[in-house]
Amino acid sequence: MESLQSFYILVLLGNIFPSAVIAARGVVPLDSLTFDKVIRNHKVVLVKFDKQYAYGEKEDEFKKFAEQAATQSDLLVAEVGVSEYGEKENDDLRERFGVSKDDYPVFKLFKQGQKEAIDYTQSVTSEDLARFVRLESGLWLGKPNTLESFDKLVVEFLKADQDKYDDFIAKAEEAMNVVEEKDQLTAKMYVSTMKKIKEKGVEFVSSETARVNKLLNEKVSDAKKAMFKSRLDILASFTDYLKKDKDEL
Questions:
Q1: Measured distance CA(2)–CA(113) in Å, rounded
Q2: Which of 13, 92, 191, 246 has a CA 20 to 30 Å removed from the CA of 175?
Q3: Phi, psi at residue 138, to the nearest 5°?
């Protein structure tokens, strides 16, 4: 009901201000006049092509992602609202990039210096959008309970041959000793995960994720829930790279 009410409000605003674009927090609206200027002047731009005044679960997930991405200065999140009526605003952009109305919302990643955009083909969730941008751009978009320096170590660790694992575990332990006190437990989780992967293989990540998810669904204290969520965020840093590696095979 709330989503339906929001839709009617947006339609009403659209009738009163037909050329107005209501953008979500952290999202830059683009049109036929501004699109190329904006794209070529930013390192990485994620653009959502959608009907004007979009609403619903996918839009909510996009908004969550946009707020998370706002802390990354090299990433711009933008949207092209396409009108099917009247002057059909931005329909030329839809046609230019081969976007079908039946596929809304459509996401494309533009990287400075590259002519072709990268299409997003996964489900529309804030987590999957963040994973896509991280893997395709190399930019860090950390989850709430992760550390940028350790996420970078994770990538190096998983890229390395197994006989080099100890070197990266040692680097992680050194880094753990110099992080702020509030991040000590988080850093320790990274190190313990690396050690478990060395001992049990990369399969440990998926089995541990399943185990922690199961624990999270049980009756536990709020403190335990917070700890489990932190653990899942850190495991996701490992999963992201492993998923990309698998997709490229």
A1: 42
A2: 246
A3: 80, 0
**What's residue 247's pLDDT?**
54
Distance CA 111, CA 117 (A): 7
Phi, psi dihedrals of residue 28, rounded to the nearest 5°: -100, 120
Task: Name the architecture of domain 28-137.
Answer: 3-Layer(aba) Sandwich (3.40)
- How far apart are the C-alpha atoms of 64 and 100, rounded to whole Å? 24
CATH number of 148-248: 1.20.1150.12
Q: Where are the domains of the chain?
A: 28-137, 148-248
Residue bearing the bigger pLDDT, 151 or 7: 151
With contact defined as beta carbons under 8 Å apart, do 141 and 68 qualify?
Answer: yes
| pTM for this entry | 0.69
Q: Which residue's entry shows tokens 């001992």?
A: 199
